[in-house]
Write the structure tokens for this entry.
Amino acid sequence: MNKKELMNNKYFIAALFLLPAVIFSLVYLIIPIPLSTYYSFFKWDGIGAMEFLGLDNWSKLLSDPIFWSSMANNFKLVLISLVVQIPIALFLAVLLTRKIKGASFFKTIFFVPMLLSSIAVAFLWRYMYDPTFGLINSFLNLVGLEQLTRSWLGNSDIAFYSASAPIQWRFIPLYMIIFMAAISNIPKQLYEAAEIDGANNWQSFFYVTLPMLRSTVVNASVLIIVGSLKYFAMIFALTGGGPNHASELMATYLYTKSFTEMNMGYGSTISVALFLVALIVSVVFLNFSKKDVRN
Amino acid sequence: MSKTAKIIVILLAGIWLLITLYPFIFMLQTSMKTNMEYFTTSVWAFPENISLDNYLTAMNSGFIRFYLNSLFVTITSLVIIIISASMAAYMIAKIDFKLSNSVFSFFLAGMMIPIHITLIPVYRMTQTMGLYDKLTGLIGPYVAFSLPISIFILTGFIAEIPRELEEAAYIDGANIFQIFTKIIFPLIKPAVSTVAIYNLVLLWNEFIYALVLISNPDKWNLTLGLWNFQGQYGTNVPMVMTGVMLSVLPLLLFYIFLQEKVIKGMTAGAVKG
């Protein structure tokens, strides 16, 4: 083929236009999956020779209580995030879509935490949680709730919940904005009709707003579920998974194993497990939600 | 809405305003205190003197370099993302070939891949390619992880462009590259700005790849710099708050000027599905 024919061949052109994106995706997204799976069969410190172990890492994983408790924490985070973020975001979205003065000012300010890096949020909260000099205990003392003051991040019974709070704080505004957009798309006639039928504010929320937001809420839930299963940064920066693995997540555990203890074989095993868990949950939930939306 | 209802709504919004804003006030006023002052006065107190000493110290202990490093990595990645994503999106949206649906699904599947499964292989590859501890080593993974959502947004937008525009240009003798650069690309600028803002915020705040692929202090980006700054000044709370403040300032300024666009960009990535 000469040059002109080549330029008229749509397969050649398509390949040319797709090439950069395909190369980046293959090298950094797709190929790492089989590679990680491959590493999971070895004992390897990331530098020296690899020693074949067969399924040893996998059987170790299945009987590793820290892995299971970290996975349980991921599912707890899913639950907490669904129960906290969706209702609060929905509530704020409903507030700000009422005709009140300053709604756009509130919206602008509410969104600010979304601009912070997870590390910045974590450090900010770490010092708010400080047992002696922190804002939160100081506030509890101020309002006469001394008995509630505690070592928020140092106590293994509550460290995980304390470390989950800033995650909620940061992500609520995202879902608030999404819900606000969806609410403003609901036809006004529906509310007028409800009003004529004598519905009060609560009734129009439960019988008009909520049903109309169903698919938006389902989509937001998918994002929260998938995001929480692979969550890493804020917990890593707040507690590092501690104390004594109490706030460990799958991702913080795999990071510590791989890059602190330099046990990359076992780290890869955890990463593949994380991938499989996230994949299974999202496939199941997506199927379920698709059916749900269709009905 | 009745007047009382309105007051209740504003009151409730006010409570969330405090929850959102007070941590920033705490951060700002703490950043101006001396360490001694922080430990001896109330956390609620205003600083005794408005002093920028902490800011000067922080800027001199690396923040200027962190800014430049983050700026370089973010901008370079954005340019590559926008070019490669819009080229791919153009093919998927406009050229009918058998595989165009599968190619689209291939890219969408990328959204399902957690960053963590790629860490060890990418760490290994980056070392093999000689890119470990180099800012350019971050660009590959940053581009790859931004592509799926970018292609998704751009494909939807390009699909809306009427075919007649391209046909007219084709009849005038333009080739496909000219059509792409002169006709398609100028038309998709709004979507490109959405994609750019979404990825800008994400990449500017990226942490885990920087943590894994960079160790040399000269190459720390803003988040990794802040991470190590905290390690160095951990017991000097005002100094750490200064570091956090410096790390959030650039995006806050950006947000002050482009609020609506930033909100639109950052939620565009989430409204899929």
Remarks:
- Chain A has two domains: 1-28, 51-294.
- Chain A touches chain B through 91 residues (CB under 8 Å).
- Strands of chain A lie at 42-43, 51-52.
